[in-house]
Amino acid sequence: MDAQGRGRAEDDNIDPADQWVLNPSTGKYELRLDTAPGPAAPDPGPGRSRRAPERDTETRELPAQRDRRSTAAAPDGGPRPGGRAAARKAARSGGAAAATSSRRRPKPKKSGRKKALLWTSGVLGFVLVAGGGVAYYVIGQLNDIPKVDVGIENDAVTDGPVNILIIGTDARSGKGNEGYGDNGSVGHADTTVLMHVSKDRTNATALSIPRDMITDIPPCPTKQKDGSKKVIPGESGVRFNTSLGQEGRDPGCTWRTVEKLTGLKVNHFMMVDFNAVKELSEAVDGVEVCAAKDINDPKSHLKLKAGRHVVKGEQALAFVRTRHTVGFGSDLSRIELQQQFLSSMIRKIKSDAFSSPSKLYDISKVATRSMTVDTGIGSATKLIALANDLKRVDIGKITFATVPVLDNPQDDATVILDKSKAEPLFKMVQADHMLAKKGKGKGKKAPVKKAPPELVRVDVTNGGGPLGAAQETVDWLQNSKAAKLSTNAGNAPAKLATTQLEYAPDQADQAATLADWMGLPKSALKKSATNAGDRVPMKLTLGKDFTAPGTPIEAPTETPDGVQNVNADDKNVCAK
User: Fold this and answer.
1) Most CB atoms within 10 A, among 34, 515, 541, 575?
2) Which residues contact 143 (CB under 8 A, 6 or more apart)?
């Protein structure tokens, strides 16, 4: 996808290494990132001289000299990590400064004050949430990240939950991508993850959306290279991955498609290409993965013996692209490998990245080369503000889940949304509930016995739901759930604000089955004092809170049954 512009910071000519400013209140020098161009900074203190930028473009700096200068101490005795980045920036502008041994600063004794380094989170969506980071000296590079105007510009930081759309495109354009994807393709939404971060920033849910799922793509406005606007018509019954690239669609089209599908408001998007996986895995010195059996995929060219391996570069990319020799050989199996890979990478970044500035710098370089973002986070200041807002998420509370789908009866190469499982999942995320595995929370209870569908007997009345809701519900119960003993009992005698299910003690198993199907909260269940006996139906009254059969009345608080999910902190996941 072509970027719609590259933003530059107004203070791009500032050498980050020179942003040490005297604080008159303390008498000490502190790092200030908001120093604007202007008069020379104060005298950096005894034993130090200001270095004027060299303008001799013919003078070249030897690597060894550059490395020596990068270790020059800051006024408080800590390292000056900005030196190396400053040399790179000067070289880009044609004014590289020569460094000689005479320019080396004497190193004063360390003051014992905490090193004044501003660490920030994130360069890719999952790295942001994982708390991986970049040092302050790459701020200039972060301003070079390409961005796309999708017609929606949200604040970088919000007080509520945050939804970040992470798109992996299969475009073959770009250095290093020539051997992947479809030849001649402008790129599709090959891998799509909606990362939901809770309002209190304690947990995150990453929803993987199958690329081959049939869905509807809404009309979307796009901004062309010449600045003009064009609305791309919507389509119905097409693959999800065509929400990007096809018909000139940009990431904003995928953004709007995901919002329509999930009912969740997207705040920002981050788009990466094949190189992101290769280079990021190299930057963290490899990612550990596990195979439960030997893998030999002729399509992705991945060859792994059963067991644990550390993959990086081309092998890492092959791992996340493999599907033919794992699971059922479908894209759903590949999604599970991607979730395993990302979980392991998050653990790696959490454990190693903060201790190594060089690794952080390498990760930041991957971002500038492989990532495109929306204008809402299209500058270093905005991206870092978002990163700092999200870095509190606990790795043990990051859960990957796959949007539930079913085989498409009309096309065995695609899948369709499994609404009975997907709707509760979406509602759970909309309510900002953390995905928790059943049976691991407090107050664990014995499972409730449920009646088989053919024994569920219920009269359905409409007491405030949409017009025709009672008949629609009966049709759904009989056709989708095989509950043939369900009956439309017409309108209820009175309007109800909430849906209710009345049942007798000897109908408890029937009530449990129906409540599970309908997504009824405990407050909706009304048990009588005496048994009903045979052939007496339960009474289901649809209230004003009812929207459609199969759509939960209340958001579940535990991961719905049948939803594939894995915790990012689970080290025992292996490709099968």
Assistant:
1) 541
2) 7, 8, 9, 12, 379, 380
Q: State phi, psi for 23 to the nearest 5 degrees.
A: -95, 110
Can you tell me the distance from the alpha carbon of 143 to that of 126, in angstroms, rounded to the nearest whole number? 20
Name which of 285, 347, 341 is nearest 318 in CA terms.
341
Q: How does pLDDT run across 219-263, given as a tens digit for each residue?
A: 999 988 788 899 999 999 999 999 999 888 999 999 999 999 999
> What pLDDT score does 101 carry?
38
Query: How many C-beta atoms surround the C-beta of residue 398 within 10 A?
Result: 26
Q: DSSP letter at 165?
A: E
Q: What span, in angstroms and rounded, lies between the C-alpha atoms of 357 and 138? A: 11
How many angstroms from the chain centroid is the CA of residue 412? 29
- Beta strand 415-417 pairing with 213-217: parallel
State the Rg of the chain over Cα: 28
Beta bridge partners of 189: 169
Tell me if residue 420 falls in helix, strand or coil: helix
111's CB contacts (< 8 A; 6+ apart) are: 28, 76, 77
Our CA angle for 443, 445, 450, nearest 5°, is 145
Report the pLDDT value the prediction gives residue 199, as an integer from 0 to 100.
Answer: 94
Handedness of CA 180, 185, 190, 193 (dihedral sign): positive
92 Cβ neighbours under 8 A, 6+ residues apart: none
pLDDT band at 265 (very low <50, low <70, confident <90, very high): very high
Parallel, antiparallel or unpaired: strands 268-272 and 371-374: antiparallel
Amino acid at 74: A
Q: Note the pLDDT tens digit of each residue in 352-380.
A: 555 566 666 667 667 667 788 999 998 87
Q: How far does the chain reach from its first CA to its final CA, in angstroms?
A: 34
Cβ atoms of 230 and 219 within 8 Å: the answer is no
